[in-house]
Amino acid sequence: MSTADVVTSFLNLLAGIGVFLVACSMMSSNLEALSSVKLRSLFSKAAKSKLVGVGIGTVGTAAIQSSGATTVMVIGFVNAGIMTLEQAATIIYGANIGTTVTGQLVAFGMSGGGGVSTTIIFSAFAGVGGFISIFAKKDVIKHVGGILSGFGMLFAALSMMSGAMNSFAKLDSVKEFLASIDNVILLILIGALLTAIVQSSSVMTSVAITMVVAGLITLNQGIYLTMGSNIGSCVVALIAGLSSSKSAKRTSIVHLLFNVGGVVVFAILGVVLELVSGGSLGYGSIFGKMFTESPQIQLAMFHTVFNLTTVIIMLPLTKQLIKLVMKIIPETADDKNKEEFKLHYVDENMIKTPPIMVAQVKNEIVNMSKLAMKNFNSSLKIICDLDFSKEKEFADTEREIDFINKKLVEMVVKLSRTPLSEADYKYVTTTFHTISDIERIGDYAENIVEYAQILKNEGRGFSQSALTETAYVQEKVNYLYDKVMDAYINHNKASFDEASDIENEIDRITERMEQNHIIRLNEGICTAVVGAQYMSLASNAERIADHIFNIGKMAQMNKRV
User: Fold this and answer.
1) For residue 105, what pLDDT band results from cuts at 50, 70 and 90?
2) What is the C-alpha separation between 23 and 123, in angstroms, rounded?
3) Are 477 and 548 in contact (CB under 8 A)?
């Protein structure tokens, strides 16, 4: 081969890797969008048991074709405090099993002889999917087209990489160089380094498969390169963990220790087998005899068996693994006081899986609304009893509402820039109004506490009839909130219709409150200053009801989320 041929082959390999990465990303984003509701339901069951966690990690990763995205998402859940480290560990175990699906697809696609090759047939899906994506009008069909295009591009990339490998296989110097790399540790390190560079174990596994098929490396070498890719795949999680809390760092360390532990156990076992058998028995020879069909099947099957066995070994040792991680990154007194407030359900790492993050944004909004209503009820207790003993707690909650408002808007802005289904995008764009409505509820509650302070300074409170009316409107506003939340969370149309009637009733109640105040003022039952605060309270209660009802309106606009 000439120098030009070598350069061409190298560029062809580079192009194949690039197309493979784009194909994985395309499949991932479209699969996520298409199965978003099911994915949300899946991850909500993570706490049931260890086996359920493994199953969720396996199915979730197989669905979105990215163990890195699954792991980073789990880091986000842990960082937000909605998943324990033990739950996260089991999902990470499953993610390692799920990532073997790509290797199996690659091996299957490269198998089969005679007539038109399977790789070419699957590559044609790229064109089919492209036509579907261009001409389809419905989002669901477009996503199907995107999945088919990604699937086809995956095999087109494999064809490019395979062609490059076949060209390199003609060079004796290249074959001799690769043949000289027989050190197990070195092969593992090369696999880890290359995976860390491309940030995809699927790419490294696929490259190893094409190299084995082309005869550039032996099956045994491919096996150790694939084992190294498991370590390299931890880089994405480690990067995500470094920029997050200690809980997130612990999750990334769990991922690293799990993967490194599995590689160490298998590497030692492999070396022992070769030493005992005098070099005649190794993973290559074992899987070569077990799966005689083709080298690609042999390597793909090793990858699957390796990850399954590692999970089986580590699952009973999960508690011990967590204890070790807690010793590596211990909890300190400063950590508990480091951050006063945080989002309860959303973390920036979740941006890797937009459909899951959409569901978590909804949970965060519900939580924010509960805080706002807590302060609404607290403000009425303060103004009615003129008891300021919990004023600091009220102020802290208000500051937390303001914090969530600011941070959640920032997260939603980032989320809105990611690929989303039509329903999810519609929901995300309306959340800005909902967050603002909730924040205004908190502000009106703050106003009511200020009115209470004026009454305290005046040395007078509301009359008994005014207190009774206030208690009645409070009851109705809380009832309205319950119905709106049912409509918002469960898309209950009946609850929304009932909420509409309650909101109209609150308008009438607050109007009567103002009329009754005028009567009491004329009768000399209350002073002008006290009356002014009561009128303001009635007005604020009516506006709070309006903002609560607005949340219900948004729910009706986004019934599929």
Assistant:
1) confident
2) 11
3) yes
Collapse the DSSP code of 38 into the 3-class scheme (helix H, G, I; strand E, B; otherwise coil) and give the result.
Answer: helix
Residue 71 has what pLDDT? 77
DSSP state, residue 350:
G
Residue type, 97: I
pTM of this prediction exceeds 0.85: no
- C-alpha 464/C-alpha 534 separation (Å) is 12
Q: How high is the pLDDT of residue 115? A: 45
Q: What percent of the chain has pLDDT over 90?
A: 28
Helices (H), 315-353: 318-328, 333-338
Q: How confident is the model at residue 407 (pLDDT cuts 50, 70, 90)?
A: very high
173-207 pLDDT, tens digit per residue, is 766 777 788 888 999 999 888 888 777 777 788 88
First-to-last C-alpha distance (Å) of the chain: 58
Exposure string for 195-213, b = 16+ CB within 10 A, e = fewer = bbebebbbbbbbbbbbbbb
Distance CA 457, CA 472 (A): 26
DSSP 324: H
Kindly state the greatest CA–CA separation across the chain. 108
Tokens of 391: 């004023």
Count Cβ atoms below 10 Å from residue 23 Cβ, excluding itself: 23
In whole angstroms, what separates CA 196 from the centre of its chain? 21
Q: What's the angle, vertex CA 114, arms to CA 108 and CA 118, rounded to 5? A: 30
For the residues of 365-396, what is the DSSP string, one character each? HHHHHHHHHHHHHHHHHHHHH---TTHHHHHH
Pair of tokens at residue 6: 């070598």
Residue with the two structure tokens 């809380």 = 478
What percent of the chain has pLDDT above 70?
Answer: 87
